[in-house]
Amino acid sequence: MSDEPQQPDQQPDPTSHEKPEPVEPVEPEVRAELLTLRDGLSAVIETEEALRAYCDALVAGTGPVAIDAERASGYRYSNRAYLIQLRREGAGTSLIDPIAFESLAPLQEALEGTEWILHAATQDLPCLNEIGLYPTTLFDTELAGRLLGYPRVGLATLVETLLERRMKKEHSAVDWSTRPLPQAWLEYAALDVEVLVELRDLLAAELVETGKDDWARQEFDYLKTFELPARVDAWRRVSGLHRVRGRKALGAVRALWELRDSLAEQRDVTPGRILPDSAIVAAAQAMPLDREALLSTKGFHGRGAERYSSRWVAALREVDEMSEDELPTRAPRGDGPPLPRAWAEKDPVAARRLTLAREAMTALAEERNLPVENVLTPDFLRRTLWSPPSTRHGDELIDAVVSQLASHGARGWQIALAAPVIVTAILQADADTTAALDAAAAASAETPPETPPETPPDSAGLSADPPAPS
C-alpha cells in the first residue's frame, strides 16, 4: 500500500487483496463555551441616586476596575461615550448612561486610586476623558497581548485563547446613541467587562514570566496621557484621492470635504452618511458648476447629494475661481520626512540608513517576539534617520540618538532596544557611501583617458589632408 494517507474522496482499490486500513473518525470541532453574565444585569444607571449608590459600591469593592465605553461610530460625528460599563469585585457589573448626567464627578472620585483595566485604551480614553474620567493607573489587555507576541489581540480572540470562552459578536456595530437601548444590546455590552479582570491577571503573570512587565508598565503609564492627534489636512484621507489629478481637482476635494465635515458636525452624524467619499471624488473630477450638471454627474450620490446641492455647487464655483497659489499641492505640507519611496532620490545616504535600520528592527522584533511597530513607532524611526545627529563620535552619537528618540515620545525600554540599531545604521550607511565613492574614484583613476584615433592614410599611403594650394 502507498505510504501516503488515504484522502476522504479516494475509494479502496477493489482488486487489491490487502485489507484497507481503518479510517479514524473525524472528531467534531469543540467550540468554546459561550460567555454569559454571572450576576445578571441590573437597570442602566441614569439617575443621581442610582449613581451615588453604585459609587459607594465601587469604593467598598476590591481590586482593579474593568471599564469599557460604547460610542456611536459610523452613526454620529462626535466621539462621545453613549454607555459606560464597569465591573469590580464586590461591586458587580453596572452600566451607566453618561448622556443622562451633567457631571460624572462622583464616579471619578470613586475610581480615584484604582487600576483601570481597558481593552484598546486608545479607543476609549478620549471619550472617557471628555466626560471627566481619568485613570490613576491602567492595564491595557490589548497592548499586553501585543507585547507578549499574540498574533491576534482582539478581545474575543484573547478571551477564547486564554479563558476558553466564546463571546457574542452580533451587536458590535450598532448605534449606541439609540434610546432606549435594547436589552440584548445591554447584555452584549456588559460582557465586555465580564472577564477583563481574569484576563488581566493571566496576561500580567505572563508579562512577568517573559520579563516584559516593566515594558508594559512604561507603556501603560504613557497611555494615561494619550490624546487623539490633531487632524492636519484630514481631507487628504478621502478614499480614492489617488485618482484625482490636478491642483484644481484637489482643491475641489478639499472644499467639498470641509463643507461635508461642517454639515456633519452641525447634525452630529457621521460625514459619510451625508455624502460618501466616492461622490466627492466624482464631483472633483467632473467639476460641474451648476446644479443640474452636478446631480447628473456619474457617481455623485448620497443622502445629502440633492439636499445640499446648491451648497456643493457654490463650493465648486469658489474653487474654480481660485488662483494657482490658493490651490493645494499633491504632496502635503508637513514638518516630517518625505515618504520613504522618495528617499533614494532625495537623499541616498538616508535611504541606506532606513534600509539597514528596518532590516535590523525586523530581526530584533522577531527575536523579542514583538510586533516591529511596538519596538519603535515607525514615524519615530523615520524622523531620526532622515535628520540624524551631526556627530559621529561614539558616546556622543548614542546620547544624541537617545535624546532625539525621547523627544519624539519613545519610551525608555524602546530607546534601549532601538538606539543601538539606529546608531549602527547611521555609521554603516556612512561607511557604505564612503566605500562606494572610493571605489568609483579608484575605477576612474585606473581607466586611461581616451585618445583620439589617428587619421588613416589614403589608399596611396599619403595623408588624407587636402594638398596645400600652390
From TrEMBL:
Q: List, alphabetically, the SUPFAM superfamilies matched.
A: HRDC-like, Ribonuclease H-like
Q: Which InterPro entries match?
A: 3'-5'_exonuclease_dom, Exo_C, HRDC-like_sf, HRDC_dom, HRDC_dom_sf, RNase_D-like, RNaseH-like_sf, RNaseH_sf
Q: Cross-referenced Gene3D superfamilies, in alphabetical order? A: HRDC domain (1.10.150.80), Ribonuclease H-like superfamily/Ribonuclease H (3.30.420.10)
- List the residue ranges of the region (Disordered): 1-27, 323-343, 437-470
Biological process according to GO: nucleobase-containing compound metabolic process
Ranges of biased composition (kind: Basic and acidic residues): 15-27
Care to name a GO molecular-function term for this sequence? 3'-5' exonuclease activity
Q: Where is the composition biased (Low complexity)?
A: 1-14, 437-448
Give start and end of each HRDC domain.
246-326
Family annotation (Pfam families): DNA_pol_A_exo1, DNA_pol_A_exoN, HRDC
Q: What is this protein called?
A: Ribonuclease D
Q: Which organism is it from?
A: Nocardioides psychrotolerans
